[in-house]
Amino acid sequence: MVKTLGEVANVVNGGTPKSKVNEYWGGEVNWLTPKDMGKMAGKYINTTPRKITELGLAKSSAKLANPMSVIMSTRAPIGHLAINQVPMAFNQGCRGLEPSSDLDVHFLYYFLDANVAALNELGTGATFRELSAKALKSFQIPLPPLAEQKRIVAVLDQAFAGIEQALAAARKNLANARELFETTLNATFTQKGEDWVEKALVEFCEKITVGHVGSMAAKYKETGIPFLRSQNVRPFRITLEGVKFIDEEFNLFLKKSLLKPGYVAIVRTG
Fold first, then answer.
1. pLDDT-based confidence at residue 236 (cuts at 50, 70, 90)
2. Beta strands 94-99 and 69-74: pairing type?
3. pLDDT, tens only, 70-106
4. What average pLDDT does the segment 45-71 reach?
């Protein structure tokens, strides 16, 4: 059987109380944002970094989603997911899905997680894509009997638990390898040979320069020449994950900080 999400779940929209009204903030009502969701570890949430008051809830378009709903970020980005264990409100960048009695909340969570790419395709907008409540409600979900949903969830839970254990072991091995490398590296440069000499970097570097200083927000482009920030400089490598771009004109303006093959980049702040 195939249903639309709107047929098997109540979709709750989010909202934000006016930020300048102090009486709306700092209360006991949990209030979630996509940014908060991006920092989560695991699928469950029972508290949020920021909270609003009952008055703030009443005076805004924010609504409380029932416990054991799925909260989904529907813009910036589309696809962060959380299962709230307590009543929870959220901003307009999220929507809550309260499953009916025919839909297991964990089955819904896994289904949405598996279909993030397809849900992104339904998003619209020039600056950033947003998934409307109408589009979300119309998205189709296969609906096996509840017992079968729970069986599928149990299989997926077991599979993901195994993956998490493997990842934990890999992270531990990586940390051990990193510690061994750093110990060897430090030993190499602290146990100086008799013929070693010390010089200032400026004595054997052709150029020591600094990158652009100042605001860059207005300079970034959708495409163009990669502009490295501190998060793009990693031990022994440059990563272009999350890289920003600038145009050729601004690149020429920054020619003094152009990296060439064989140069060494070092993070000096942050």
1. confident
2. antiparallel
3. 999 999 899 999 999 999 999 999 999 999 999 999 9
4. 97
- Judge whether 52 and 21 are in contact, CB under 8 Å: no
Which residues, in sequence order, are CB contacts of 201 under 8 Å at separation 6+?
A: 208
Tell whether omega for the bond before 145 is within 30 degrees of 0, i.e. cis.
Answer: no
Cβ partners under 8 Å of residue 44, min gap 6: 82, 83, 84, 85
CA nearest neighbour of 105 among 80, 137, 74, 70:
70
- If you compute the radius of gyration of the chain from its CA atoms, what whole number of angstroms results? 25
Residues 141-195 have pLDDT tens digits of: 999 999 999 999 999 999 888 888 888 888 888 888 888 888 888 888 888 888 8
Q: 73, 103, 71: which is closest to 85 by C-alpha? A: 71
Instruction: Map the chain to HEC letters.
Output: CEEEHHHHEEEEECCCCCCCCHHHEEEEEEEECHHHHHCCCCCEECCCCEEECHHHHHCCCCCCECCCEEEEEEECCEEEEEEECCCEEECCCEEEEEECCCCCHHHHHHHHHHCHHHHHHCCECCCCCECCHHHHHHCEEECCCHHHHHHHHHHHHHHHHHHHHHHHHHHHHHHHHHHHHHHHHHHHHHCCCCCCCCCCHHHCCCCCCCCCCCCCCCCCECCCEEECCHHHEECCEECCCCCEEECHHHHHHCHHHCCCCCCCCCCCCC
Are the beta carbons of 82 and 3 closer than 8 angstroms?
Answer: no
